[in-house]
Amino acid sequence: MAGEFLITASPSVYALSGKIVKNVFVTQGYQQNRKVGTQYHWDSCMPYMCNSLPFQGGKLAWTGTSSMQICTLSPYQSGFVNRGTVYCNAAPSTTAIPYLDKVDFLKLQNGSDIRGVAIAGVEGEPVSLTEPVTEAIAAAFAAWLLEKKKDDGSHHSRVSIGHDSRISAQMLLDAVSRGIAVAGLGVVQYGLASTPAMFKSTLTKDEAFLCPVDGAIMITASHLPFNRNGFKFFTSDGGLGKADIKNILERAADIYKNFTDDVFKNSKTKASTSVKRVDYMTVYTSDLVSAVRKAAGNIEKPLEGFHIVVDAGNGAGGFFAAKVLEPLGALTAGSQFLEPDGLFPNHIPNPEDKTAMKAITEAVLKNKADLGIIFDTDVDRSAAVDSTGREFNRNRLIALMSAIVLEEHPGTTIVTDSVTSDGLTTFIEKKLGGKHHRFKRGYKNVIDEAIRLNSVGVETHLAIETSGHGALKENHWLDDGAYLMVKILNKLASARASGVGGGSKVLTDLVEDLEEAAVAVELRLKIDQSHPDLKGGYFRDYGEAVLKHMENFIESDPKLQKAPVNYEGVRLSGFGGWFLLRLSLHDPVLPLNIEAPSHDDAVKLGLVVAAAVKEFHALDTSDLDKFVQTT
User: Fold this and answer.
1) What is the tens place of the pLDDT at every residue in 489-505?
2) Burial of 365 (0-12, 13-18, 19+ CB in 10 A)
3) Of 44, 372, 415, 420, which residue is the least packed, with the fewest Cβ within 10 Å?
4) Do residues 219 and 378 touch, judged by C-beta distance below 8 A?
5) Rounded Cα gap, residues 591 and 580, in angstroms
6) β-strand 478-479 against 470-472: which pairing, if any?
7) Per-residue pLDDT averaged across 218-246, rounded?
C-alpha cells in the first residue's frame, strides 16, 4: 500500500514498555524539529491562515498510513499517537476500547487549571495526560462552551488553541484539536503563544484573524518541570473558575469511558479538514506596542536610547524583544534564552526563582542595560531589574505597580494575596494614599476579589500576587506579564517625553520609601496523609484543625497581635515582624511565611509556631525545627 511501512522487531523489543518506546519517539521528534524550526514558531504562519495541520513537534511524524507490529504497545496507553493509524491486530469497533487506562479525571484539577504528566521518564510520575484523556477534556470543554453560549446552530462556534514551549505541546495540540473538531466546533491553532494572548483572542474583533473566538485553550503548565503540561480555558468573560473546571472534568470522564475506535477515526478525519492556523501573536504584540506609543504621546519610538534586556527562560516570551521592544526603539542586545526550548536548559522560567532572577540581574549588569525583564513560561507573570541590579519582584513589584496605578487613580484599592508584607501595607496606605486589601493566595482569588469589590462600589484598579500575576481593570482583569511590563515601559517613556531622564531611576525612586524586612523566609510544614493521626480523614480537615489550635494558642500571649482583618490562615504581628501560617490551596502542606527585622526576631516568631504545633504528629516540622535552631 502506498505510504505504508512496516516496523518489525525482535522478541526483546516486544518486551519494551510503552514508556520507553514513547520516550525514544518524543526525543527524536523533538530534536528533529529543533533543527528545522524557526526562532518564533508563529513567524512560519504567514500568510495569516492555512488549512493544513502544523508540523509535528515533540514526537515522530509518520506521513502515511502506518502498520505497526509491536502488538504490546497501544497508542492510547503510551501517551502518543502517530499521524497515521496504528494497527494492533484488532478490527475497528463501535464498542468501548478495553485497553484505555483508567483515569481519575478530578485529580487533574489544579484550582482553575488542569495539570498532569504528559511525558514519561521521571520516576514515580506516570503519564496522566495521554492523548485520549486530552481529547476527552477538549470535547468536554466544547460541550460546556456550547451549553454556556446557548448555541442553536445559527452561529458556527470556534475555539483558539495555543501552547508554550514544552516538548509535549504538539502532541497535546493535536489531541485538543481533534476533541474540539469532533464536537463540531471550528479549530483555530496559534502555535507558540502566550496565555494572555489566548484570552485576548476572545475579545479581538477581526475576521481576518478569525476573531473573536468563542473560547480559547492554552496548553501550559507554567513553570513546572518539562514532563508536565496542562490547560487553561477562557471565554470573553475571562478565565474559567474552579467549578467550571470540575464540570468539564466530570463531562470528560463520561466521554472517555464511551470512547470507541470509530470515535478516534472520526476525530482525526474531522480535525484534518477543519483546522486553520492563524498568526494571532501579530495582533497581540501590535496592541502592546500601540499602548506604549499612546502613553508617550504617540511618539513612534518612545524607547529610543533605552537598553532593555529580556530573559524568556526558553519559554514563550521571546517575542517581547523583537516584536515589542525593538519596534519601540529600544536596544535589546544581551537578551537571553529567547529561543523556545521545552527542556528549559538554562533556568526555570519563574520570576520567583532565585536562579532565574540572578540570571536576568547578571545580564543587566554585564550589558550595562537600563532595565531587565523576565517572564515565566507562558508570559502571564513577570518581573524586572533596574540598572543597578535591584529586583522588582514580589512585594517590590507590587509596590511599583501600586505607585503607577495610584498616580492614575488616586485613592484606589490595591488587592493582593495573603503573603504580602506589613511594609507594603504602610507604603500603599501612608505613602501613596491608597487602600490595601490583603486577600487570599491564588491569582484567580485575587482577581475575582477585585472584580467583586468593584461590583459593590469599592473602586479597584489593580489585583496582583507576589508570584508576579498582576491584572488591571483597564486590561479586562487579565493577568498578563507582558502588559505589566508595558505599564512600566509607559512610565519610562512618559518620563522621558516630559523631560525627566535617568533611565530606570524613575522606577527605583517610586519605591524608595518601601520598608522591607531584613529577613523573609517561607517554610513548608508537610502533612503526612498516611499518619494514624489523620484516622483516614482528609488532609484539609487536619490542616484546619492545626490552624484553629494556633488561633487559640496565640490569644493568651500579650506580645502577639492577631491581624484585625485576615482572609486566610492565621496571621499575627510580634517581635517587630509577622508570620502567616496557612493551608496550601492544593497540596497537603501548611506554608509558613515569616518576616522580621532580624534573624533572632524571626526565630522568636518561628518558636511560637513550633510550640503551638508540637502536638500535631502528622506534621513534618523538620524545616521549622532547623530554622529555629539557628542563631
Assistant:
1) 999 988 888 877 778 89
2) middle
3) 44
4) no
5) 8
6) antiparallel
7) 96
